[in-house]
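CO-FOLDING WORKSHEET

Operator: S.A.
Ligand of interest: adenosine-5'-triphosphate
Run index: 354
Mode: holo prediction, single chain
Checklist:
[x] sequence pasted
[x] SMILES validated
[ ] output reviewed
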Amino acid sequence: MEIENMFSDILGKIETGVIVLDQVNRQVFFRNQQADRIWDFIQATYDYEELSAMMFNELDQIKSSNMVCSDRSLINCDHRSFAYRVCHITGTKQYVAVIINDVTDQNRLEAIDEASEMMNNISNVFSGIRHEIGNPLNSMKMALTVLKMNLEKFSKDEIKIYMDRMTDDAAKMESLLKSFKNFNMFEKPNTVRVDLDLFFKSLTQLLGADVRKKNINISIDILPEGRWVTADTRALQHVAMNILANALDAVEGVENPTLKIRGEAVGEKVFLSIIDNGCGMPDELVENAFKPFFTTKLHGTGLGLVISKKMLGQMNCDIKIRSEEGAGTTITLTMPKAKPPESDKVGSEIVYHQ
Ligand SMILES: Nc1ncnc2c1ncn2[C@@H]1O[C@H](COP(=O)(O)OP(=O)(O)OP(=O)(O)O)[C@@H](O)[C@H]1O
Ligand SMILES: [Mg+2]
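OUTPUT RECEIVED:
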């Protein structure tokens, strides 16, 4: 049996859809049976021009970078999900392969996983709330009891000490409730084109005094391609402030504290990294960092990253942590790239809220 026939026989039988596009003659060069089945199901056409229009982003992604494969894209149709990637074929520029998989079952399993993870999180949330509200509440109750018993005996100054303590406790509860409000903020994000360069230059100004006091060296390096993203400016400001606040905490006490903000584009995505040379996190901490109320700080609520992740999700953005204990942490946000404005009126659409 000829080797070509052997491979085409195998390709015909596998569960993965394969389409090969001939970019020179602008035609579909090959497709296997599974691709046919999927294409029939989603009622897509085999017309080269329509196919390449549909996969414009992925084709552009592998053309404009050294990537072997594009990111995974999803097609949802009639309760089924199909994932495809566009890949280079080694040794040829003429042909590219489109690899398609039915990921419906995988998606369902992931949804079940997510739901059970959510149930775990809910019990964490309840015990967190019990703890965060329970402590100041108990302390207030104790202060009230002592005051009640000693009302006649205590001097005005002594009474004031107890009153102040109760005011502090009430403030703690108030700040927790404020965090909950943040969680529901920007349910419907108002996304606009944002100039990341200008955004971070303004934002780091806001950190000014703290940064100067601690002698932190901040650099902002947003490459032109990664400059424009689509986001809700207020939500993004909230997220960036949380991440920067964490980075500032992390560099406390290290030699030459440094914070780098970097932006670059890959295909239609912008990768924005906030890099610190602080204390870093052991693997276990990285795994827990997005769990509600997880904190290693005396006065932290452990909600900063949870709320940030939720806000980012609503803006079609993602967040990843890479960290090395004792060396530093890189937080990377993946954001949808926006087209630069036609005029040079840079940053004209941005409104900052302080
Ligand atoms: N850049 C960083 N370097 C080292 N550890 C970090 C960094 N960012 C986050 N962490 C760890 O992740 C934990 C969770 O962070 P998160 O922002 O959710 O809460 P927090 O900072 O503890 O509290 P809050 O944000 O409410 O003040 C932190 O307590 C810290 O241990
Ligand atoms: Mg924080």
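REVIEW:
Confidence is low (pLDDT under 50) at residues 345-354.
Residues 242, 245-246, 300, 304 surround magnesium ion (ligand 2) (CB under 6 Å).
[x] output reviewed
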